[in-house]
Amino acid sequence: MTVTKIEMVSGSRSRVFLEEGEEFVLYKGELRKYRIEEGGQLSEEAYRELQMQVLPKRAKLRAMNLLKNMRYTEKEMMDKLLRGGYQAKTAREAVEYVKSYRYIDDRQYVTDYIACRAQGHSLREMEQKLLQKGISRELFREVVEELEGDGFVADEEEAVRRILKKKHCTEKVMDEREKQRLYAWFYRKGFSLDTVRRVMEDVLLDIT
Length: 208
What we know:
4 domains, 8% strand
């Protein structure tokens, strides 16, 4: 296998490009160990060792280290590893590894996400945020149904009240322009305008 190009990624890492179209990131010490240089040949034995042992092990360790600092959905972890230079097959193997220990659990992620944000966010807004994180609409709705079955109720009115209080809107008289800006903000966040109007009429000063 011919090494067509070696491109520095950082002070200690370089991206290796092979004639067959494959690419992967290695450390300086690994370049020396496997005698990898631009225009040179990578033996089948070295290639197999890198693809079957070195890179999968490193990807798993990378995933574990990332999870020490924050939680990830499957998609977020996959994207993170791909951006780190791992091939899709290696990244997927690492994601499946951490999933097997339930360090990544999309269903639990959605459950906790809703529980933590329900008091200040609409269900529609939470759904949109989670879709961006790779959560399917079906999974989101399944979790909402499960939570509702356990007695959870997304109190949209209470969420609006909390937001208005947090924005100090209940402490001042607002003109029509300010009120319309508030309506627009709540609409973008996925709240029902009927709910917003009802709460604002109840809690805002001098509203008509």
